[in-house]
Each structure stands twice: as structure tokens, then as C-alpha cells.
Design brief:
There is one protein chain. Strands 2-1-10-9-11-12-13-14-15 form a nine-stranded mixed β-sheet. It has 15 helices and 25 strands. Among the domains are: 152 residues, ANL, N-terminal domain (Rossmann fold); 98 residues, GMP Synthetase, Chain A, domain 3 (2-Layer Sandwich). The chain is globular, with a radius of gyration of 23 Å. Bound molecules: malonyl-coenzyme A (MLC) and adenosine monophosphate. The site of malonyl-coenzyme A has 21 residues, from helix 8 and strand 13.
């Protein structure tokens, strides 16, 4: 008897198999009028995959990418999967010190950056021992495509096992430095397949893609969703509420963080006529306010479907798409997705009862393989029986709907981006004249939540809030910059001497009230 060849678990193979039979039909249409066919996606990703193969990289080599959003950047992602390497996307807002850490920690074999940043990214890559640096710009220029142009457009998809690594996503840490979450081909494909069914992806669907492609939401949930269904994407390189609303009549599915919904609601063109062909609006990455949920329903007649996920786990829960499974409930993130085990645990490590608040823990085929080169951290974040501790605090009601009511991790989510106070405070505390600082989140009508920082100074020091923020701006990604800074005499402390952040949050909660 001959052994059956093992099926290829490479995520790209599954995505490619879902391309429509007519490869010349349109796969992506950009907001600036470019059209890409399915054949274009296949050929261009083959050419870039052949370029990567020609570099003779080691198995598991990381391809770190910090480029503006473009269809070519998505092709680079597909090429990396296809060639069997590990994709490492980096937020375009990250500055020198941040990139230095990620590149130093991940030791990528290839770094791709915009030509605008090459003068500082190049030396960082060289210092980390990265042998190959390419550039890629959002106007289809740069050395990556120049070199790929002479590569073959035929490429055999690399064979991968389900537990082979496909991507590393860095998440900031509450303490210490960022951790790289290692996601496998199996994590990503199983989650994409579950969502395809759960959200009822169907023939004729068209997705508006308006999110950045360096985080889970835009890179995995949105792109895999469309590709695995052979669906066309209307591609915005940057979210623009007016232009997005103008394209709604041509689409059926939209995915966004709550800020995108808030901004679209401010558009007069958003009405029932504009959404007449829409099938589904999905929100996630941050809590969707009930006011936004209700206002959206009134204006459009559509009930937003809210779901919950994270970098380490891709998607975990979702409100139902199909009314047979229940209604979409505002203020909840719905039910655990098929295959996901989700439990809420008390401090004394028992399962919480209905509506009792506790720590959310999860397991399933979607849960990541661990943190890159941090076995200790990985062990700490899993329970003895293999559940991942999400750091989110929530409850499950009598019908099974999960609600997130808070976080045990000291984290601010601003416009869908995570900001870890410890990181920002660390930078401020190092400034000359600063004694200490405390960053808390305050509700914000546009970003949902933003950072407010309180700073105390050393005796005799004179440092203005603007100077503190100015210094931060020069060093950190823009979304991490607190929106307000106050220099204060002292910080409130409890009897243990710990800064009372809850008190500060209470004190500043009305700062940005409408
Ligand atoms: C930009 N700024 C932000 C910000 N984005 N400040 C706080 N929070 C943010 N998210 C800064 C800008 O630098 C600028 O500062 C000022 O705020 C105003 O910027 P803007 O022009 O209004 O911002 P814009 O470029 O329009 O971006 C806003 C946005 C963007 C909402 C479109 O932040 C965005 O695309 N967010 C989506 C994030 C995302 O995809 N998250 C998914 C994570 S995955 P200045 O000083 O220059 O004026 C995940 C898992 C899951 O969480 O479950 O999905
Ligand atoms: P990230 O590490 O960037 O992937 O962010 C993941 C975190 O975003 C989760 O741990 C949650 O705290 C938060 N999150 C994602 N979706 C939702 C949601 N629908 N409601 C509330 N918080 C969410």
C-alpha cells in the first residue's frame, strides 16, 4: 500500500482554492481606481514568493513589513504564506525605537519598508543582522517589485503542516516589552473557515476593506473572509467616512472598529438608501457603545454584529448572523464561535455562575502557539489545563451571550489600537525633571477611549505638559500619545502606596464629554 500524501495545510492553498473559476474577474478595486483580477493576485504573489525563495532563507524565516496599505502589500502577505515563511506586520505609526525592538527581537531575514523610511530602517535591520532589505511604496514602486518583476509568475505553494507558524503579531505588554504572538496556518485557516459559515458569506458578496492591514482585524478577518469566499473587495488605503459611505451601495459587507461607525454616522449621506444592498455590518477590536449600536439601527435599519477577538486568538465570539440562532444584542459580543471553548473564572479558580463577573479564558484551534522566544511568558498566560488567559473580564448571561465588562490588563483601547500605560509611563518617567507619571483612559466620543496622563515633577523642575507630549511624539507611534497631559502636585495612592488609577479614571471621565 502506498502512503497517502499529506494534504497541504498552507493557508494560501485554501485561499487560492476559493478563487473564482473566472480568474480574470475583478478581485480588488481600489478607491483610486485601480482594478486587480484574481489572476493578478495569483501571479504577483507567485512572483514575490519566487523572489523570497531565491534568497535561500531558512525555514521559519521572518519577513518583517512596515509599509503603507496597498494591494501590493497584501500580495506580499500572500506571497509570504505561499512560500512558507512567517509574516510579521508592523504598524506604520511605529517610530525608530519601536521598530528597533521588533526587528531586534524577531531577527527577520527580510525587512520591507517604505522608501521614505529606508534611511533609518536600513541601519536598524543591519544592526539586527537582517541580510535583505527591500522597499515597497503605495504607488507600486520600490525595490521589492522591481526585483520581483524578473521572477517567474508560476510558483508551487510550499507544503506546510497546520501547526507551522504563519505570522507573528506583536502585542504590547503590561509589563516589560512587547510579545510576539505566534499564529499558525491552522490557527488562521480554522478561524477563517468558521467565520465563513457563521457570518453567512455568500456568492455576490463585496467587502469594503477600510482598515489597516497590520493587525488581526484588517489583515486576517477581513482579507481571509473575502478571499476564502472568492469575494471582491473595495479597497480604501485609508479610511475616509465620506468616501466609504459613497461606496456602500456597491457593497454587501463592512467591517470596522467602533470609531469607523461613529465617523460614518456623522455623514449626512448615511441613510437607508445608501445601505440598500448591504447584508452585514461587523464591529470589533474595541467596545461598541450602545448609543452607536442604536443610532446605527435607526439610521440604516441594520443591526451591527459585534464580535470579539485578539491577536493571540483571532476571533473568539460573535453575535449571531442567522436570526434562528438569536438576536444581535448590543453591549454583548455574542456567543463563543464553533470550536471555541470560553469560560469565565472566579479569583478562586472556579467557573462563574450566570452573570457572575470573572476572567475570560479560552481554548480552541484558533489559540496561538505561544509568544516568540518567551517560554516563561507563554507558560504564565496559560492555565494548567491549557486555557489562554485573555486578560479580559466578562460574564455570560442565561442565554449564553458573553459581555466584556473590563480588563484585568492595564490597557487602553483607542480607536481600535492598544495602548499600554506602562510603556508610555516608562518613557515619561525617564524625562529630565519628571518624578513619576500615571496614564489612564478617559471616554472619548470619537476614539472610544483616549489616554490622559498625570505627571509629577522633581523638586525645582519646570516642565510644561506640551513639552512632555512633544518629547513623546518624537519617539512613539502617534496613537500612543496621550490626548491630554496635566502636571500635578501628587498622585493619589492607596495605603499600600499604589497609585489609585480607578480614582483618576473617575476624576477625568468627563474631560472629553460631547
Ligand atoms: C490616529 N490618532 C489616534 C488614533 N489614530 N489617536 C488615538 N487613537 C487612534 N486610534 C491620532 C493621529 O495621529 C492624530 O494625531 C490624531 O489622533 C487625529 O488623527 P485622525 O486623522 O483623526 O486619525 P486617522 O488617521 O483618521 O485614524 C483614525 C482611525 C485609525 C480610527 C481610522 O486609528 C484606525 O484605522 N484604527 C483602526 C485600528 C485597527 O485596525 N484595529 C484593529 C486591531 S486588531 P496628531 O497629533 O497627528 O493630530 C484587534 C483584534 C480584534 O484589536 O478583535 O479585532
Ligand atoms: P489586540 O491585542 O490588539 O488584538 O486587542 C485585543 C483586545 O481588544 C481584546 O483582548 C479585548 O480587550 C479588545 N476587544 C476586541 N474586540 C472587542 C469587543 N468587541 N469589545 C470589547 N473589547 C474588544
Amino acid at each position: 500500500m502506498t502512503a497517502q500524501p499529506q494534504a497541504n495545510a498552507n493557508l494560501y492553498a485554501a485561499l487560492r482554492a476559493a478563487f473564482p473559476a473566472d480568474l480574470d474577474s475583478m478581485a480588488v478595486e481600489t478607491d483610486n481606481g485601480l482594478h486587480y483580477s484574481w489572476r493578478d493576485l495569483d501571479r504577483a504573489s507567485a512572483m514575490i514568493a519566487n523572489l523570497l525563495d531565491a534568497l535561500s532563507l531558512e525555514p521559519g524565516a521572518r519577513i518583517a513589513v512596515q509599509v503603507e496599505k496597498s494591494v501590493e502589500a497584501m500580495m506580499l502577505y500572500l506571497a509570504t504564506l505561499r512560500a512558507g515563511y512567517v509574516f510579521l506586520p508592523l504598524n506604520t505609526a511605529y517610530q525608530q525605537a519601536e521598530i528597533e525592538y521588533f526587528v531586534g527581537n524577531a531577527e527577520p531575514a527580510v525587512v520591507v519598508c517604505s522608501s521614505r523610511n529606508a534611511h533609518w530602517v536600513g541601519p536598524i535591520a543591519a544592526a539586527a543582522g537582517t541580510p535583505h532589505v527591500f522597499t515597497l511604496d503605495d504607488d507600486r514602486s520600490g525595490t521589492l517589485l522591481e526585483v520581483a518583476a524578473s521572477c517567474s509568475d508560476v510558483h508551487e505553494v510550499a507544503h506546510k503542516e497546520a501547526d507551522d507558524m504563519a505570522a507573528i503579531l506583536y502585542t504590547s505588554g503590561t509589563t516589560g516589552r512587547s510579545k510576539g504572538a505566534m499564529l499558525t496556518h491552522g490557527n488562521l485557516l480554522s478561524n477563517a473557515q468558521v467565520l465563513k459559515d457563521y457570518w453567512g458569506w455568500q456568492e455576490g458578496d463585496v467587502l469594503i476593506h477600510a482598515l489597516p492591514i497590520f493587525h488581526v482585524h484588517g489583515l486576517f478577518v477581513a482579507i481571509h473572509g473575502a478571499l476564502l469566499n472568492g469575494s471582491r473587495m473595495i479597497w480604501f488605503s485609508k479610511f475616509d467616512p465620506q468616501r466609504t459611505v459613497a461606496r456602500l451601495p456597491d457593497a454587501t459587507v463592512f467591517m470596522g472598529v467602533p470609531t469607523l461607525y461613529v465617523r460614518m454616522l456623522a455623514e449626512r449621506g448615511l441613510n437607508k438608501k445608501a445601505v440598500r444592498n448591504m447584508r452585514l455590518f461587523i464591529s470589533g477590536s474595541a467596545p461598541l457603545l450602545i448609543e452607536t449600536f442604536n443610532e446605527w439601527r435607526e439610521r440604516t435599519g441594520h443591526t451591527i454584529l459585534e464580535r470579539y477577538g485578539m491577536s493571540e486568538t483571532v476571533m473568539l465570539t460573535s453575535n449571531p448572523y442567522n436570526p434562528v440562532q438569536g438576536e444581535r444584542r448590543g453591549g454583548t459580543v455574542g456567543f463563543p464561535l464553533p470550536g471555541v471553548q470560553l469560560r469565565v473564572r472566579s479569583e478562586d479558580e472556579r467557573d462563574c455562575t450566570t452573570d457572575e463577573i470573572g476572567a475570560i479564558e479560552v481554548s480552541g484551534p484558533n489559540v496561538f502557539a505561544g509568544y516568540w522566544r518567551m517560554p516563561e511568558k507563554t507558560r504564565e498566560e496559560f492555565t494548567h489545563d491549557g486555557f489562554f488567559k485573555t486578560g479580559d473580564v466578562g460574564k455570560i448571561d442565561g442565554l449564553g451571550y458573553v459581555s466584556i465588562v473590563g480588563r484585568s490588563k492595564d490597557l487602553i483601547i483607542s480607536g481600535g489600537y492598544n495602548v499600554y500605560p506602562a510603556e508610555i509611563e516608562g518613557y515619561i518617567n525617564e524625562m529630565e525633571g519628571v518624578a513619576e507619571s500615571a496614564l489612564v483612559g478617559a471616554p472619548h466620543p470619537d476614539f472610544g477611549e483616549v489616554g490622559v496622563v498625570l505627571v509629577t515633577l522633581k523638586a525645582g523642575a519646570a516642565l510644561a505638559p506640551d513639552a512632555i507630549l512633544g518629547e513623546l511624539k518624537a519617539r512613539l507611534a502617534n496613537f500612543k500619545i496621550p490626548k491630554r497631559c496635566f502636571v500635578v502636585e501628587e498622585l493619589p495612592r492607596n495605603t499600600m502606596g499604589k497609585v489609585q488609577k480607578a480614582l483618576l479614571r473617575e476624576q477625568y471621565k468627563g474631560l472629553f464629554a460631547k
